[in-house]
Structures are given as structure tokens and as C-alpha cells.
Amino acid sequence: MKTRMHVVISGRVQGVFFRASTAEKADELGLTGWVKNTPDGSVEAVFEGEEGAVDEMLAWCHQGPPHAKVINVSATVEPFTGGFTEFSIRFK
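Above: the chain sequence. Below: its structure as C-alpha cells.
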């Protein structure tokens, strides 16, 4: 079953390759969507794909890459749209 999850990760998550590592993990899991830094210092992402892969991605977000220090992960399940062809890093 396909699903979509909107995630906001806070803590020391900018300047530690969080976006690049997220994109790499999402590609590995066959997910589509996007990830970006936000002005408040958190990282925001949308993941679409198979439910098990999205769940695995969410679990990874609680840890992140080696130099990250994740304090909180807020996740919301949203209706699957199938509107992405790849996983991308957004800069705005």
C-alpha cells in the first residue's frame, strides 16, 4: 500500500548533511518526495512510497546522519498523491 508522510525534524539538523543523507536514504528505499531546510533551523520532508519503506524512512529520521542530534520528529500521514517522479533536495 502506498502512503505519504510529511515530517519535520528538529535539533542539530542543519549543517550536518541531513538533507543529502535523507535523499540518499530515500533513494535507497525507492521513495519519492523532497527535503529542505526551514528558516527556524529544522528540516522538513515529504516521503511517498510503499508503507513499509516510508516507516523505515521515518525511523531513520529519528537518528539522522552521524553528526546530527535529533530532538523531535513530527510526522503526519497525508493522502498519497503520486505527484513526484524522484526524491529531491529543495533550496527554497
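The longest strand covers residues 2-12.
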